[in-house]
Amino acid sequence: MTKLVSIGVSFVVIIAVLFAAYEAYLKKPAAGALSEPIVIARGMTTSEIADILKRSGVISSTAVFTAVADLSGHLKDLHAGTFIFKEGMSAVDAIKTLSVQGQAEISVTIPEGYNLRDIAARLVLSKVIASSADLFKATGAPAASAKIDTSLVNDYSFLAYKPANAGLEGYLFPDTYRFYAGTDANTVVRRMLDDYLIKVASLSPAPDYSTLVLASLIEREVKDPADRAKVADIIKRRLALGMPLQFDSTVNYATGKSSPSVSSKDLGTDSLWNTYKYAGLPPTPICNPGLDSIAAAQTPTPNKYLYFLTAPDGTVIYSQTLDEQNAAKAKYLK
């Protein structure tokens, strides 16, 4: 009987050791632990650190974490700071991460008029996200048919008014943000949608989708707020008359280029965003506009013009007739 009890105790010890080894070396953090950085404040005890990591889903046993930190000799090396725990990390890897100084925030400015491609490139260059594809997956890549996470529509009611097959172009509000290197693209998108909610969706009235599309055109075409309001009126009257808008900015969006003067080949691009080829507004915004352009789209300044062009120095030249417009092109766009 004593021998059987001894075997039973040994078996329990072996199972406990194997479980501890699994927790320490093999167990991966929960998916939810990978999206948000975790802040470890200065002066926290090992138990407090373990509690935060357990609540965040990084570890499942505070006792194992504390024991491994002690046995590995890293107990005194755990730093304060902001940390991101990558997929596939074990408790041992998490402890090693905490033994390295925490990350500093990265300040990233998204200018007014940036589109999804521009934003993705800047976030990659700043090392906030790993690839443009990550942002496109989270926002719906610039395409005729885009898909986004349905939870976004549930969490941000203003997205319910966009077309079902449209991505988030137009909703990533231009501003200066602070992120950590390796931030999950979904977290980046939610931060920018939060900013849109505060700055834009709270306006009275909040812009509808067609207003947002109009604002994106204004943003790309002219810079001065007074000109923007006049151009908004020109666009609305051209649309009412059934006149094509013929904006180079929409052709550039269709081709993915940023040419100040588009080529004849580009003008022939068969895309719903090509306003030389298709009448009406493009199906989605062509960039993410700022508040000035949104305000101009909502409150246009009435005027007598049907045409405009922007000279190389930024001056906007207005014309009432096509002949006047062609003369202005010959004079200012040599």
Please give the structural blueprint.
Elements: H1 2-26, E1 38-40, H2 46-55, H3 62-71, E2 81-83, H4 91-98, E3 106-109, H5 116-125, H6 132-139, H7 150-155, E4 176-179, H8 185-199, H9 209-221, H10 225-241, H11 248-255, H12 264-267, H13 291-298, E5 307-310, E6 316-319, H14 322-332
Antiparallel strand pairs: 1-2, 3-4, 5-6
Helix pairs in contact: 2-3, 5-6, 6-8, 9-10, 9-13, 10-13
Summarize the structure.
The chain has 14 helices and 6 strands. The protein is mainly alpha-helical.
Rg calculated over all Cα atoms:
28 Å
User: What is the H/E string?
Assistant: HEHHEHEHHHEHHHHHHEEH
What percent of the residues sit in helical stretches (DSSP H or I)?
40-55%
CATH class of the largest domain: Alpha Beta
Task: State the domain count.
Answer: 3
Approximate shape: elongated
The percentage of residues in β strands lies in 5-15%
Examine the secondary-structure arrangement and name the CATH architecture of the largest domain. Answer: 2-Layer Sandwich
Rounded average pLDDT: 86
Main sheet record: 2 strands, antiparallel
The SS-based structural class is mainly alpha
- Residue ranges: pLDDT <50 for 5 or more in a row? 11-20
Number of helices: 14
- Largest sheet, spatial ordering of strands: 1-2
**Strands, total number:** 6
